Amino acid sequence: MDSSMVTAFGLVCCTLCLLLISALRKRCGKGKLPPGPGPLPIIGNILQLDTKNIPKSLCMLAKVYGPVFTLYLGSKSVVVLHGYKAMKEALIDHGEEFAGRGSFPIIDAINKGLGLAFSNGERWKQIRRFSLMTLKNLGMGKRSIEERVQEEAKCLVEALKKTNGMPCDPTFILGCAPCNVICSIIFQKRFEYHDQKFLHLMKLLDEKVKILSSPWIQIYNLLPLLAQYLPGSHHKLFKISQMMHNFFLEKVKEHQDALDPNNPQDLIDSFLIKMEQEKEKPQSEFTMENLVCTVSDIFGAGTQTTSTTLRYGLLLLLKHPEITGKIHEEIDRVIGHNRSPCLKDRNSMPYTDAVIHEMQRYIDLVPANLTHSVIQDVKFRQYIIPKGTTIIPLLTSVLYDNEEFPNPDQFDPGHFLDESGNFKKSDYFMPFSAGKRICIGEGLARMELFLFFTTILQNFTLKSLIDPKDIDTTPIASGFGNIPPSFKLCFLPSQNV
């Protein structure tokens, strides 16, 4: 080995040693972080994670290091919360300190910290306060929004009737209904299910979610500085996001031309009025860029989560026809076939309510939640977590808690029923997260799921194309969210309708 090679080898060894020392100093430096696996230089604990199912990897590590542990993604420390007690203590009891949004590199690259879901600090507070107030003014939690959902449920039934009982993939039909509800709130407009621009938008959103849940995006989030220079699906994600932003910007411009400041019709109108009110304010958060990102966040969250739950829920009902039969019996007894289901029916339908809750628990739609961060140095248990540290609250560890939900891997509505068959609430039911960052559309989503499911089952019998015991309900992706496998079914019109 010549002297130059020796020198180069020595430099590499020195560099690796310095990186290792740096990582160790971070573990022992500012704050006393919870224990966790020892990181490797540069890559941290990445090799200990399965990029196809990171939440499962984190649950396995919790068995070794406890309910609160530290992980290194590259050189960045992340604190993981596992189980109900740790989650409640952090997100609810210390809600203000844990209210920051943690880094999500791929989304940060798209949204640049704007909008509602991934913003922080004063920007997040102002946009969230505005969004909550505007949604309330537009009927959220009132009879008017329920009537809007009921009307869309009727349109959904008409679209399903057009399948004529033939095998169909329900993905886009089921996506159209919640999408139209959220569009009516944002744009004051609903689209026909065959509208080509509408279908294109739905396809873009579906593809976006699939890419976000792919292993490659998990790698991007772990090593963003390296991955951004490599070929991969993130480039397609950027293009899709830009196309969707262009669509929303077009809608905003249409609203600008027809705006009546004294009579706002939807969320875009309300935001434009707020922009005008604060146009002289130098640091106003109500800008065109923030408007487009906020609309995009509410549109995506309000459409995809509900449509995926509907689709996954139908797959579970096909898998368990005995459960579906009991829902039919309850619908016949409580609602009948001469009127549309309404929200007050839920109190008289404990079994159906339990099934829908169990769907959300079992589906475990966003298993690792959206990351949080601490907004200041926090004393948590016997640890000190430094300001800015990313927090991963593992929702899956709560929804699949085997003490609260015996046999959590089984789809069992009994998890939400008492011995007398009455609906049983659970503090462990956290599909919408908890604390300051809980989903602002929880009430709307729960209303939609009840009304859409009951209206579908009131009007149709579900027929599987294969034997129920052969139906596989395992998600095809478990990254950002759990995505159900593709399937077809027949919607056979009910004999009583």
Notable traits:
17 helices; 8% strand; two-stranded antiparallel sheet; Cytochrome p450; alpha+beta; globular; 51% helix; 497 residues; endoplasmic reticulum; single chain; 5-stranded mixed beta sheet
Q: State the CATH class.
A: Mainly Alpha
Instruction: Give the strand content.
Output: 5-15%
Number of domains: 1
- Distance from N terminus to C terminus (CA atoms, Å) equals 86 Å
Element-level helix/strand string: HHEEHEHHHHHHHHHHHHEEEEHHEEEE
Number of helices: 17
The secondary-structure class comes to: alpha+beta
Largest sheet features: 5 strands, mixed
| CATH homologous superfamily classification | Cytochrome P450
**Corresponding CATH architecture:** Orthogonal Bundle
Q: What ranges have pLDDT less than 50 throughout 5 or more consecutive residues?
A: 1-30
Average pLDDT for all residues? 90
Kindly report the CATH topology: Cytochrome p450
Overall body shape? globular
Adjacency order of strands in the biggest sheet: 1-2-7-4-3
Range of helix content: 40-55%
The tally of strands reads 11
Q: What's the alpha carbon Rg, rounded to whole Å?
A: 24 Å
